[in-house]
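Dear support,

I submitted the protein below through the web form. The confirmation email said the job was done, but the results page showed an empty box. After a refresh the structure appeared. I'm attaching both so you can tell me whether what I see now is the final result or a partial one.
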Amino acid sequence: MIRCLLLVLGFMLLAMDGTLPADAEDNTTPSTAGLELKNPRQPAEGLISGGQPTAADLAVLQSRGVTTIINLRTPGEVSRHDDPAVAARLNFNEAAAAADLGLGYISFPISGRDGLTEANARHLDRLLADSGGPVLLHCGSGNRVGALMALRAYYVGGQTSDEALAVGLAAGLTSLEPKVREILDAATSTGGQ
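What the results page shows now:
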């Protein structure tokens, strides 16, 4: 029953959008149009980033070619919203919904500032490399996604700290920007990369 509802909602959202993006045919970066996903971004080919998706978002993304969900939220983390109906759409068993849709699902919990490490940036790089297709990478708002993407750009991609910050901002980095700057400044001063 729930799976049927998810599929119906997904098709309804797809129908509202009307078309697939031009790049959907080569399955590189599906469109974010028509999603409830907070702060949706397309920071790189084959990658959508943002905040917590709804179950309907997962169905739409699956229909557009996304194959893997990487969730950076910590166990027990919930989305708060003034509207109880919206909160209910954001707080669901994401792993089960992904499995019902045939999507790969990876829980990689990152706990804010403490989770912003070189090791986690490198692990994220491996997860993305092993995904086998387009990915939705999300946390609650997109902020942790952007932070880790900045660190990945620096430690794995060899980009300068300014270039890495630009990558992070493009992927959703907001309030963690000062912490990311601090980490990159410290790494740069010690010659780390």
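Response: this is the final, complete result; the empty box was a page-load delay. Strands lie at 41-44, 47-50, 68-71, 104-107, 135-138.
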